[in-house]
């Protein structure tokens, strides 16, 4: 069982969350020409590496907020959690 | 190579089975190979075998970080099927079904292929319609499919829950009678033994740490056991694809996810077929030893841990018990997890890359085992001829760029969603 520290609600079990994928992916800027390659990188291409991974989770059975979680994909250790609009250094 | 036969078995009995040849050697890497295959799993071993057998290319090395057959080919639920709707998947898998039927004779190794049939259960009228459509598509591609009504399903699997006041009553099902199971580890050993006998070097405990690329052409690989020159390199590493892609500065439409499976204690024969639950993701078959072999959803988040987490297992088995209530009385014997190369449309990639002489085989999601022979056969063709075969032409890397996705399940890019 993973325990995720929701920045709004505190420590909760993974059963209350649903996963949203890589949080480092950025949608291409609006109001400018977007190349096929940029769309590809946004929609399909992922690094998905072994080790630290910043990802989105939604506290679907709690506050329903989207949050960012910094987690190790090999050990499943969770290091830090952030509100969705927080910048991650 | 010593042939495995009843006569050799008897002959060797007289010497207490101490004089059998080794099934494969443990060579030191040579300085240069015509083809290097990275990954000694089912697909890598099959690729090397078909390179030697179909294309007469025998100066081949298989480079494996751990030991051969130690990854997903040794930890899956052994289901073999070709019940796909899309042409690319159907024709590719059905080509594989032919190779499965001949495999034990071809490899002189008993892979215990057991075409016991697979039944996908339907739980609504709409699902019956969808299965009728899929079954018709299959039959148009020459794949056997039978649409079963509720009574016909009940005759085949009377132990399932046929009561009417349940959340997901059984309306019927789609059956592929020629689908089945095989002994997964035997597939790895069979391919390894034949490849080795034709001159392929199987190099274990050898980790790839980098690639030598010059002027857009592959020159060789760097490994924990020294540099190896190669004219061509094939990557066949399933869940570790992204780790190697990073060393090549490639970003792929692949995410690595965790899938669990489990077996119960052995019981007397109760289930003849492979059965899948249609209102969720759960499948079950019974092994020759009597264990119920079960699996279902991914854990649902990026992971390289080859071990699972209980909430997903509980969720999957809840579906299993809804489908076949007697499963709740069984004790769990073993659970395990493996890492899956989840592609963004749920279909694999077998293709050339932008680097000359570098080939990619990945994106098998949780359906890699059944594809082992067809994947090896087409990947060997792609490497040997430096062009894709018509069977894997649809499994191109640039389909994500051109929009020619093969989205069998209609899940979009988040194929890990359960």
Could you describe the 3D structure shown?
Chain A has 89 residues and is mostly beta strands. Chain A has a single domain (3-83), classed as Folate-binding fold (2-Layer Sandwich), CATH 3.30.2270.10. Helix content of chain A is 9%, strand content 37%. Chain A contains one helix and six strands, in the order E-E-E-H-E-E-E. Chain A has one helix at residues 36-43, and strands at 3-6, 10-13, 18-22, 52-58, 66-72, 78-83. In chain A, the strands form two sheets. Chain A has a four-stranded antiparallel beta sheet, with no helix packed on it. In chain A, strands 1-2 form a two-stranded antiparallel sheet. In chain A, a hairpin with a 7-residue loop joins strand 4 (52-58) and strand 5 (66-72). Chain B has 418 residues and is of the alpha/beta class. Chain B is built from ten helices and 18 strands. Chain B has helices spanning 6-13, 42-55, 87-107, 125-140, 150-156, 184-197, 241-247, 310-323, 372-385, 399-402; strands at 32-38, 60-63, 79-80, 118-122, 146-149, 172-176, 180-181, 201-203, 208-214, 217-223, 226-235, 254-264, 274-277, 282-286, 292-302, 332-343, 349-352, 358-362. In chain B, strands 1, 2, 8, 9, 10, 11, 17 and 18 form an eight-stranded mixed beta sheet that branches.
In brief, what are we looking at here?
The complex is a heterodimer of chains A (89) and B (418). Chain A is mainly beta and 89 residues long.
Secondary-structure-derived class of chain B: alpha/beta
Q: State the largest interface.
A: A-B, 28 and 24 residues
Q: How far is it from the N-terminal to the C-terminal residue of chain B, by CA?
A: 47 Å
Name the assembly state. heterodimer
Strand content range of chain A: 35-45%
Tell me the helix content of chain B. Answer: 25-40%
Please name the CATH architecture of chain A.
2-Layer Sandwich
Structural class of chain A: mainly beta
CATH topology name of chain A: Folate-binding fold
Assigned CATH superfamily of chain A:
Folate-binding superfamily
Radius of gyration of chain B, rounded? 22 Å
Shape of chain A: globular
**Quantity of strands of chain B, as a count:** 18
Instruction: State the name of the first-level CATH class of chain A.
Output: Alpha Beta
Q: Tally of extended strands of chain A? A: 6
Q: Which consecutive residue ranges of chain A, at least 5 long each, have pLDDT under 50? A: none
Ends distance of chain A: 27 Å
Strand order in space, largest sheet of chain A: 3-4-5-6
Estimate the mean pLDDT confidence of chain A: 95
Number of domains of chain A: 1
């Amino acid at each position: 069982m993973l325990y995720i520290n929701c920045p709004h609600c505190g420590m909760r079990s993974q059963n209350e969350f649903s996963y949203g994928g890589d949080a480092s992916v950025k949608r291409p800027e609006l109001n400018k020409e977007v190349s096929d390659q940029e769309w590809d990188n946004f929609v399909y291409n992922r690094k998905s590496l072994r080790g630290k991974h910043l990802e989105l989770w939604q506290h679907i059975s709690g506050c329903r907020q989207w949050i960012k979680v910094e987690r190790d994909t090999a050990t499943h250790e969770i290091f830090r959690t952030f509100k969705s609009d927080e910048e991650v250094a | 190579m010593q042939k495995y036969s009843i006569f050799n078995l008897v002959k060797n009995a007289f010497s207490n089975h101490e004089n059998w040849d080794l099934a494969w050697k443990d060579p030191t890497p040579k300085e240069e190979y015509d083809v290097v295959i990275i990954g000694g799993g089912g697909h890598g071993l099959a690729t090397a075998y078909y390179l030697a057998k179909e294309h007469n290319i025998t100066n081949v090395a298989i480079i494996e970080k751990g030991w051969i057959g130690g990854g997903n080919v040794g930890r899956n639920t052994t289901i073999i099927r070709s019940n796909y709707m899309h042409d690319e998947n159907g024709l590719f898998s059905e080509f594989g079904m032919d190779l499965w039927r001949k495999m034990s004779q071809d490899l002189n190794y008993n892979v215990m292929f057991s075409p016991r049939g697979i039944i996908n259960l339907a739980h609504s009228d709409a699902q019956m319609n969808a299965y009728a459509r899929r079954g018709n598509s299959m039959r148009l591609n020459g794949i056997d499919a039978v649409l079963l009504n509720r009574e016909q399903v009940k005759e085949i699997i009377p132990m399932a829950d046929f009561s009417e006041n349940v959340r997901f009553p059984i309306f019927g099902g789609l059956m592929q009678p020629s689908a089945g199971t095989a002994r997964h580890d035997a597939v790895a050993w069979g391919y390894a033994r034949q490849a080795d006998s034709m001159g392929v070097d199987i190099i274990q405990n050898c980790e790839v740490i980098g690639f030598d690329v010059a002027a857009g052409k592959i020159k060789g690989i760097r490994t924990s056991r020294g540099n190896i020159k190669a004219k061509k390199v094939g990557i066949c590493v399933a869940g570790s694809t992204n780790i190697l892609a990073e060393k090549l500065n490639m970003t792929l439409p692949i995410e690595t996810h965790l899938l669990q499976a489990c077996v119960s204690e052995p019981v007397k024969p109760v289930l003849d077929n492979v059965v899948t639950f249609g209102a969720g993701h759960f499948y079950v078959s019974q092994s020759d030893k009597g264990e119920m072999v079960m699996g279902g959803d991914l854990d649902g988040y990026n992971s390289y841990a080859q071990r699972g987490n209980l909430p997903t297992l509980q969720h999957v088995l809840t579906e299993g018990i809804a489908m076949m209530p007697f499963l709740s009385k069984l004790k769990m014997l073993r659970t395990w997890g493996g890492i899956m190369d989840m592609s963004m449309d749920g279909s694999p990639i077998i293709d050339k890359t932008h680097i000359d002489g570098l080939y990619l085989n990945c994106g098998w999601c949780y359906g890699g085992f059944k594809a082992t022979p067809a994947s090896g056969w087409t990947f060997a063709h792609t490497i040997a001829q430096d062009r894709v075969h018509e069977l894997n032409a649809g499994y191109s890397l640039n389909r994500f760029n051109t929009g020619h996705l093969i989205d069998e399940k209609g899940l979009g890019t988040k194929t890990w969603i359960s």
